[in-house]
């Protein structure tokens, strides 16, 4: 089942939300292409895009919340650093092994599920703190 953006994922920051929507859409594209065992010519560009976009998005989001001096903001930066490593690891694994059912499951758990739960539990909380500040 594809991931869907909903109001429950809104941080209240329109440009952060727009980037989250784009991330969810690209993760859905990736998982669909993996499930159908599409060729490297289709999957590699999505992975490359995601790697770049995640990086840009995190920098942008960290800057958007940088003025907040709260534990959530520090936890967010730490979580982003961890996730960057996860993305690099999964991309390297794809390059070594190609598409497989086990890598598809791992991408779903460690990329898709992580993103949605991070948005819900960390980014939305930061958005609420930013609005209250
Ligand atoms: Fe975040």
User: How far apart are the termini?
Assistant: 37 Å
CATH architecture: Up-down Bundle
> How confident overall, as mean pLDDT?
96
Helix content: over 70%
Reported for the largest beta sheet, the result is:
none
- What value does the Rg take, in angstroms? 15 Å
Share of β-strand residues:
under 5%
Principal-axis shape: elongated
> What is the total domain count?
1
Q: What is the number of strand segments?
A: 0
Our count of helices gives 4
CATH class: Mainly Alpha
What molecules are bound to this protein?
Answer: fe (ii) ion
Which class do the helix and strand fractions yield?
mainly alpha
Extract low-pLDDT stretches: none
Provide an overview of this structure.
This protein has 133 residues and is an all-alpha fold. It has one domain (13-132): Hemerythrin-like (Four Helix Bundle (Hemerythrin (Met), subunit A), Up-down Bundle), CATH 1.20.120. It contains four helices and no strands. It has helices at residues 14-35, 40-64, 71-97, 101-132. The chain starts with 13 loop residues before the first helix and ends with a helix. The model has no long low-confidence stretch (mean pLDDT 96). Residues 61, 76, 80, 118, 122-123 line the site of fe (ii) ion. The site of fe (ii) ion (FE2) has 6 residues, from helix 3 and helix 4.
């Amino acid at each position: 089942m594809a991931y869907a953006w909903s109001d429950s994922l809104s941080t209240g920051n329109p440009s952060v939300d727009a980037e989250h929507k784009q991330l969810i859409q690209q993760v859905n594209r990736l998982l669909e292409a993996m499930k159908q065992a599409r060729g490297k010519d289709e999957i590699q560009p999505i992975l490359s895009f995601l790697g770049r976009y995640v990086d840009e998005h995190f920098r942008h989001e960290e800057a958007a919340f940088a003025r907040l001096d709260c534990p959530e903001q520090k936890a967010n930066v730490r979580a982003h650093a961890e996730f960057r490593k996860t993305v690099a690891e999964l991309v390297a694994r794809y390059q070594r092994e190609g598409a497989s059912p086990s890598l598809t499951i791992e991408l779903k758990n460690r990329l898709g599920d992580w993103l949605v739960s991070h948005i819900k539990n960390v980014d939305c909380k930061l958005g609420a703190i930013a609005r209250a500040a």
